[in-house]
Amino acid sequence: MKKYLKHDEWCIIEEGFKPELNRVSESIFSIGNGRMGQRANFEENYTGDTLQGSYVAGVYYPDKTKVGWWKNGYPEYFAKVLNATNWIGIDVEISNTSLDLAKCKVKKFRRVLNMKEGYLERSFEATMKDGKKLKIKATRFCSIVEDEVGAIKYSITPINFSGAISVTPYLNGDVRNEDANWDEDGSFWTPIDTKVKRRQAYVLTETKKTNYQVATGMKFGIHKNNQELVFKSSKIKTGLFVGSAVAIPVKKGDRIDVYKYAAVLSSENHEKEDLLEECAARVKAAYQTGFDTLLKNQKIAWGKKWEDSDITIEGDIEAQQGIRFNIFHLNQTFTGVDARLNIGPKGFTGEKYGGSTYWDTEAYCLPFYLSTADQKVARNLLIYRYKHLQKAIENAGKLGFKDGAALYPMVTMNGEECHNEWEITFEEIHRNGAIAYAIYDYINYTDDKDYLIDYGLEVLIAIARFWSQRVHFSNLKGQYVMHGVTGPNEYDNNVNNNWYTNYIAVWCMRYAATALSYVKENDAKKYAKLAKRIKFNELEELENWANICDNMFFPEDKELGVFLQADGFLDKELRPASSIPKEETPIHENWSWDRILRSCFIKQADVLQGLYFFEDHFDVPTIERNFQFYEPMTVHESSLSPCIHVILAAKIGNYDKAYEMYLRTSRLDLDDYNNDTDDGLHITSMAGTWLSVVKGMGGMRVKNGALHFNPFLPEKWNAIGFKIQFRGSTIQVKMNKTGTTLQNLSTQPVTVYLNDIPQQIPARKAILVEV
Amino acid sequence: MKKYLKHDEWCIIEEGFKPELNRVSESIFSIGNGRMGQRANFEENYTGDTLQGSYVAGVYYPDKTKVGWWKNGYPEYFAKVLNATNWIGIDVEISNTSLDLAKCKVKKFRRVLNMKEGYLERSFEATMKDGKKLKIKATRFCSIVEDEVGAIKYSITPINFSGAISVTPYLNGDVRNEDANWDEDGSFWTPIDTKVKRRQAYVLTETKKTNYQVATGMKFGIHKNNQELVFKSSKIKTGLFVGSAVAIPVKKGDRIDVYKYAAVLSSENHEKEDLLEECAARVKAAYQTGFDTLLKNQKIAWGKKWEDSDITIEGDIEAQQGIRFNIFHLNQTFTGVDARLNIGPKGFTGEKYGGSTYWDTEAYCLPFYLSTADQKVARNLLIYRYKHLQKAIENAGKLGFKDGAALYPMVTMNGEECHNEWEITFEEIHRNGAIAYAIYDYINYTDDKDYLIDYGLEVLIAIARFWSQRVHFSNLKGQYVMHGVTGPNEYDNNVNNNWYTNYIAVWCMRYAATALSYVKENDAKKYAKLAKRIKFNELEELENWANICDNMFFPEDKELGVFLQADGFLDKELRPASSIPKEETPIHENWSWDRILRSCFIKQADVLQGLYFFEDHFDVPTIERNFQFYEPMTVHESSLSPCIHVILAAKIGNYDKAYEMYLRTSRLDLDDYNNDTDDGLHITSMAGTWLSVVKGMGGMRVKNGALHFNPFLPEKWNAIGFKIQFRGSTIQVKMNKTGTTLQNLSTQPVTVYLNDIPQQIPARKAILVEV
Question: Which is nearest to B577 in space by CA: B661, B519, B501?
């Protein structure tokens, strides 16, 4: 837990240079545009502690799997997010001494992430060893308009000396990952080509094994006191380090502005042979457009993003800053323009975990993009999984499943499994359910039923087939059971009959059958074609699914009126998480693994995750009983835990608990709650914060094609505002002490339910419903 | 499965050179003496496929733990058995060409392991590229009389040429392990010193991190046609390769005998500064004694070993060879003279697994040494664990146990845990029970109750304390339960209430209490001292144990009349192992891990292991019902499985099953049953074969201080004979078609029970009880 950042509605502000927190700040102040991303490393040389990170979407290396003891079925590799060519570098030298914040006196250091306009600014005054003082201001951004372009304005002012300043804008392809399993000592790139011109440079490198090529280019100009400078430069080319050194004579008080324009292109988006050429074209175009215009366009584009996705919280600036920080990073990570991309757990802010896709995407992130972006964005997230269906079928095949059954991977980059703990890889199979649920969620929200016909049904059948093979009939119980699974609560491994998994499995089979009826009825031809292609034996398979669904075992305790997390749960020693001594928390850092497993303590919503997904299947007292039973045993040691509890607590009217839970999620990274922000942000859990506000405090649901709100306003706050895109309409919701205002920003009337009462809102009108 | 070795009562014989089986033969023909061991690598240069292995007891390297995902509580290192300085090497050169079986025509290749006399012999004729033919015969052994000494006689006869033969006896300390986790690329030794003289050489190396020093020395002599040769030599010293090259003029038909004497000394047994000197002294003494005398002494010593431990099987030469092979290797691996040593799963035959001690020692090996060797040998195996008690207490402490509770490691070299799979390391805790059981077993066999006073009780209390903390009270059941364990059947992980573990836990607490009464009664002073030292709160702790024992939950099914392997076992799909398609066996190679876990299939005796240990607690029908229930589901994919089933099948009179199971154990390595003998032999399971014959077919038990036999003779065999050391008496048992002969070889009368009828056998007399 750290509290070193200034509170501001729209900006993240760090004041004073704190080398010991540099990695944390590098994560927090990261910039990105869905296609590329950059940690807040310094432009100038820095010999202090830093995690260098420049990432290119979709480019990875299959690092050799690292396990102690091989288990049959483990994947061969682990997809690693790669640190790519450094495009931000600008070395500064004065009297042959490199400007290096680790070796200067630093004053007035200030780092600002302007979330409203989408850029990073850093300024400071440095006193060199020899007493020379200079002032630096650096501004940079990854353009969300031209998503292969980044731009930097780096301003240098000598405060107390005249003489020469040497600046060297450069690219450096000789980069490593800090962490690597086995291979290559973290060096995952092969050099292909480099070029240097007077004010341009290019690096073309290729990933080992996967053979992605990435071209990085830069062009720069220099202004002195706002006048373009004509300069000579010395070209530098050492291995994959390419740049131009320019010596600039300066007088005290002069201002040197270095404008550096960079482009990062990958062979995922261009023919390899065109890469350098295309890269040069983008670099030159950016140079011609100029920094100010690029930045202006950036501000306009971010303005539009905020227009769609902003949440306002009045009366609590910390909360306001927290929620915007989360929305900002979600929008930086995934823009939805490319169905090959997904939402990595660290986004573009670190190299940890590797792989880009977890069930987080479907369970936590999808609703954010559904409500705040064009429908295509969410649809692309579904298409991503559709494209991986054959790999998921192969994956299930490796585990002994057949006849087109699909098991989606726990972690993946390209559809292949990358995780290697048996209790997760083979057993945390509820992820398959989340992928089916996302299809339901998308269609429920958008009414885009055509998606079922063209893509959804095929995925749903493959998933239903998996479940139908994964259960088995217990002669003892006379019911179907599911053994050897790990639920969302990873603090209870390899259990039998995890209620959540059993429930979602049955739901999947039923939903697949419903979807099938719909498709058959609405496009019999396409259905017939699909059925033939996937060898679907309709009669037999449907009967089998129905039989399983009708005879599935669900662990529950009738007396307590609760569903049981798994067989034997009530045999555990049940006690509240509050009974754990403070010095033993978080338990995952302080207790041995077996002790955690044996305990009743819950890492994140498990039974409650099911009640969240399938809220309408249960009455409020049932939800309440389960919440009261499980929440006290929940340690929330997953960043994905609190948000679900906010929503359910709000549902059952436990607003204090909802607010308490909200406080644990909104500033997780900003305050480095778990002391692990140094290696990257928790991008997917940021969506959970959004969910907390909109589904929790706003009580937003979609039922029978209509938007519902059941708002509550935390006492400490004056007002909450957010905007929802829904089937072509835009609804602005404002909740304050007086009541709730629903504003229809669209050109058509819309009916919205407020506390279950329908409200007709004419086009461009608002209604206020008082408390 | 391979069947390439000749059948012989006393020898293992390979005929014909089979490079593709070389690693398998290198394992099978290994020699050792409990202090050092050597795979059957060739003396001369060999560029073909080989696993070089020369091992020194107690010398290991703590290789960095390799895990995919760290779990709290994992050990930091994995103790690795080290390949040490090569002392067997003798290079042979003719016309500057190295003799290398990978590059010659090889005829009449023959490898013989003479188990009766304890040496390895190899002979062949080689035709070099240039047509020169020569005959080689090499004999070598690790002395069991001087256990730091090895000797080689290497005879060379030029068949079709005269000229010069160059021989270079050498030592080479520049050796690696084939397999290493992370560190050092398999190179675990630091050079300390080397010396070369005309006919001597020395290498002193030190292990990295653990800093064991090993001195290896050699001295050689050469005879030509039985005459000692005076020779000049060229000393060679390249890094850690030291030797002397001798050019010998030869005529066709001459015989050159190279006698090489080596000594291997470790700093475990000598002061570091004396190592080289002591090594030289041993080398010289061996040289002076001479090969023939050393070999004669070896034969005498092995004669004595066989005298004590031989088993004869008449009418089945394969079975005879198999059982002797197992006994031979057990005696090569552990001699019991040093309580710091133990029985590694691969002995001195390979580097796989690392660590030396598993629960195999207590559960499977102890009875062999109890019955065939001096009582001290078995006692030293117990003392080994006594010495590790503090480490076991620390180990339990790491997992959150306190107040002197001990958890012995799953795998260890020095008392510290070396294994790193959570479901094993933290959960396969029944090993603790086996360590207590061994104390019981030893005392039951030997009547050495003093052991309890001086060592046993302290270990038993620490183990009982562990169990008392590891269980918890289930409010649901109103009984104590034990969650999150893995039983001996590792194909069912992280289960609740594994019957075997619950049973042995309760037994441990009860036995500790009984032992405590005994010690208190018989040596109140020592008891009081111990109780004070370990802060034993007698009243409270004993009451707690008794309470747990009286209220422990044991899963069972009354209707079926069987104990349940664990909670939920009957929920599994129960089907016999015979229903698994042949091409899918062994399942651990063909099924994904989760599928194995969900299945009912059992790797090795689990409930049945308990019925074996505690046979007298159950009536025969109970044992029979459980055997009939579990054995059909058992896949015996652990080499430790069949032996327990032989014994129980014999117990319930299912002799066909007993014999069927016996066939799966006795020639496991000789016939390379599981295709994994290439990287070493399954030493600990060899004890299981001995158990199968003596406790299975012989029906040997010790009850109330008396030996019992309940023999059965497999139909295919004519006779079985074995000898048992028991409390100062030696009993020779012979079972044939006529009946059972019990011969008392001791100078005192002894009462032995045959089929529960007491038989008084006078000193030096035999009785025959007809069938």
Answer: B661
How far is A241 from A300, CA to CA, in rounded Å?
35
Residue A459, token pair as written in the block: 């995925």
Q: Give B209's Cβ-side CA count (13 Å radius).
A: 15
Chain A contact present for B252, CB below 8 A: no
Does B248 contact A at CB distance below 8 Å? no
pTM, rounded to two decimals:
0.93
Asked if the Cβ–Cβ distance from B572 to A483 is below 8 Å, we say yes
pLDDT in tens, B120-146: 999 999 999 999 999 999 999 999 999
Q: What are the beta bridge partners of residue A317?
A: none
A86 phi/psi in degrees, rounded to 5? -70, 120
Nearest to A67 among B68, B475, B592 (CB): B68
Given a contact cutoff of 8 angstroms between Cβ atoms, the answer to whether B753 and B707 are in contact is yes
Tokens representing B562 are: 């069987």
- Say if the Cβ atoms of B570 and A476 lie within 8 Å: yes
Which one of A69, A400, A570 has the shortest CB-CB distance to B421?
A69
CB contacts, 8 Å: A426 with chain B: 592-594
At residue A119, the pLDDT reads: 98
| φ/ψ (deg, to 5) at A238 | -125, 105
Q: Which residues of A touch B494 (CB under 8 A)?
A: 423, 493-494, 597
Asked if B512 contacts B439 with a C-beta cutoff of 8 angstroms, the reply is no
Closest chain A residue to the Cα of B476, Cα to Cα? A571
pLDDT digits (tens, 9 = 90+) for B536-549: 999 999 999 999 99
Q: Contact A72/B589, CB-based, under 8 Å? A: yes
Do B438 and B383 contact (CB within 8 A), yes or no?
Answer: no
Long-range contacts of A298-301 (CB under 8 A, 24+ apart): A298/A117, A298/A118, A298/A119, A298/A141, A298/A143, A298/A144, A298/A145, A299/A116, A299/A117, A299/A118, A301/A118, A301/A144, A301/A145
Single-letter amino acid code for the residue at A236: I
Give the tens place of pLDDT for each residue, B144-176: 999 999 999 999 999 999 999 999 999 999 999
pLDDT at residue A68 in the model: 76
B571 touches chain A (CB under 8 A): yes
User: What is the Cα–Cα distance from A152 to A165, expressed in whole angstroms?
Assistant: 18
Task: Inform me whether the C-beta atom of residue A64 falls under 8 Å from chain B C-beta atoms.
Answer: no
d(CA B632, CA B630): 6
Catalytic residue chosen out of the listed positions A490, A541, A624, A637: A490
Rounded Cα distance between A575 and A583, Å, is: 17
Centroid of chain to Cα A321: 18
Tens of pLDDT along A601-658? Answer: 999 999 999 999 999 999 999 999 999 999 999 999 998 999 999 999 999 999 999 9
CA distance linking residue A655 with residue A659, whole number of Å: 6
Quick check: B180 and B228 in contact, CB under 8 A? no
Q: Which residue of A has its CA nearest to B483?
A: A598
Amino acid at A167: V
B590 interfacial to chain A (CB closer than 8 Å)? yes
Residues of A in contact with B567 (CB under 8 A): 567-568, 571
pLDDT per position as a tens digit, B498-530: 999 999 999 999 999 999 999 999 999 999 999
Put the strands of the sheet holding B31-32 in their side by side order.
B31-32, B36-38, B54-56
Question: Among partner residues A483, A574, A593, which is closest to B422 by beta-carbon distance?
Answer: A593
Catalytic status, residue A428:
no
Chain B interface mutation, best of A398, A407, A571, highest count of B Cβ atoms under 10 Å: A571
d(CA B241, CA B261): 17
Residue A472's closest chain B neighbor by CA? Answer: B573
